Amino acid sequence: MSYRHVKFPESGQKVSISNNKLVVPDNPILGFVEGDGIGPDITRAALRVWDAAVEKAYGGKRKVHWAELYLGEKAAGIYDGDYFPAETLEAIKELIVAIKGPLTTPVGGGFRSLNVSLRQELDLYACVRPVQYFDGVPSPMKRPQDVDVVIFRENTEDVYSGIEYQSGTPENRKLAKFLREEMGVNFFEDAGLGIKPISPFASKRLVRKAIQYAIDNGRESVTLVHKGNIMKFTEGAFRNWGYEVARDEFSERTITEDELWEKHDGVQPEGKVLIKDRIADITFQLMQLRPAEFDVLATMNLNGDYLSDALAAEVGGMGIAPGANMADHVAVFEATHGTAPKYANLDKVNPSSLMFSGCMMFDYIGWREVSALINESFTKTVAAGIVTYDFARQMEGATEVSTSGFADALIARL
Ligand code: NAP
User: 352-364 and 368-383 are packed helices; what angle lies between their axes, rounded to 10 degrees?
Assistant: First the structure.
């Protein structure tokens, strides 16, 4: 494919897929989108840290060849006002792995969120958010070190499908009439109406990805989070389909809580992932009281949205929470916060959310030494009290540094 503005570095090779697995050369071309607002500041800092960590880990044998891709305001400047150029989508599909900064969603004018468009166009059906504590990071928890979970949130359906009918419209009245007269249900006059589709296809592919991740990464359990006691045929069905995937496709590697007690006296057999389920509201409570009981969480869209941000707050907030949106192979890693426009170009904010999303990306391509080095350096840097403003205001005696200063401190401690 020939591109108008995208250029792939000639010195690099593309990541490919063979036998359903990623094949990563030592000189992969990875895509990056710097994003809007604080995006350029954090991207500049993170790129320096990633490159330095790769160099440190492999002494020049491996190197990322970055290809800049464009979305948002920078794209609009280059592609005659187009915030979402088709060739960026094509390039991400071709490169398979990319990372992006935050993007502004212009308010009004029927403009669809660029992030939502990206997820839909590339069918990035799993939003993956690891939540892990680093020593020294300010936290409201008594034992934040017990928090170590990875959330797999379904990204394509649930009440986020946009099937909604506004109160007072002809469409709303038509649906209300059908529901009352043909389905025999009742609700208050002029209620706004929304549909919550939960399918076996979308539920199963999400839970499949969560279980596969747990197996590949030596995790102990996958918890299916749901509100199936109330919404039996949507949330309850998600739970049932989740157990079905475990039983039908991973029977050798998984065990349910019932089996654990009936056959193993509550002692988890080596090499098996425990599949359990918990009601959503109890999960929020337990994640504060006994977070050590959770490992991988598989959720539907809305529950996962709430849970991801609530858990991120337990270990330092949005400034450091990483994330990714994934299809079967194509994966777009991203900072989980927004563009924080009031801090744009001030070289002030915390680059860690994007930087740790990069660590997830290096784990994804199998370069685990890189993320291990960055994690270690981050812990040392924070322990030395060197932090950006967001942490400094919660820590006594900290030395506040800029975005680029924080990157310098991390690189010095690699
Ligand atoms: P936001 O940009 O995440 O900022 C909210 C607040 O979070 C900031 O004012 C700041 O808090 C803190 N914060 C965010 N990033 C930080 C960082 N790197 N380091 C330290 N603190 C950080 O949320 P918003 O103001 O609601 O949204 C602004 C724009 O971003 C909107 O256009 C929205 O649509 C977009 N957005 C994009 C994405 C995405 O691209 N994935 C996600 C969310 C929102 P203090 O003010 O307390 O310092």
Answer: 150
Helix ranges, 96-153 (H): 114-121
Q: Is residue 384 within a helix (H) or strand (E), and if so which, with residue range?
A: none
281 a catalytic residue: yes
- Report CA 90 to chain centroid distance, whole Å: 21
Count of beta carbons in the 10 Å neighbourhood of residue 29? 23
Q: Is the pLDDT of residue 106 over 80?
A: no
Of 26, 135, 248, 281, which one is the catalytic site residue?
281
Tens digits of residue pLDDT in 349-387 = 999 999 999 999 999 999 999 999 999 999 999 999 999
In the chain, what percentage of residues exceed pLDDT 90?
Answer: 90
Going by CA atoms, what residue is nearest to atom 9 of ligand 1? 340
Nearest of 378, 396, 380 to residue 319 by alpha carbon: 378
Tell me what the pLDDT averaged over the chain comes to: 95
Tens of pLDDT, residues 209-246:
999 999 999 999 999 999 999 999 999 999 999 999 99
Mutate to test the pocket of ligand 1, among 107, 337, 349 (most ligand atoms within 8 A of CB): 337
Q: Can you spell out the DSSP letters for 157-207? A: -GGGG--EE-TTSHHHHHHHHHHHHTT-----TT--EE-----HHHHHHHH
| Any ligand 1 atom below 6 A from CB of 353 | yes
Residue nearest to atom 10 of ligand 1 (CA): 340
Q: Which of 100, 209, 227, 272 is catalytic?
A: 227
Is 160 in the active site?
A: yes
With a 6 Å cutoff on the Cβ, whether 41 touches ligand 1 is no
Q: Is the CB of 308 under 6 A from ligand 1?
A: no
CB atoms under 10 Å from CB of 5, counted, come to: 14
What is the per-residue DSSP string for 13-47? Answer: B--EEETTEEE--SSBEEEEE--STTHHHHHHHHH
Tokens in use for 311?
């858990």
Is the distance from the beta carbon of residue 390 to the nearest atom of ligand 1 less than 6 Å?
yes
Q: Measure the CA–CA gap between 403 and 395, rounded to whole angstroms.
A: 17
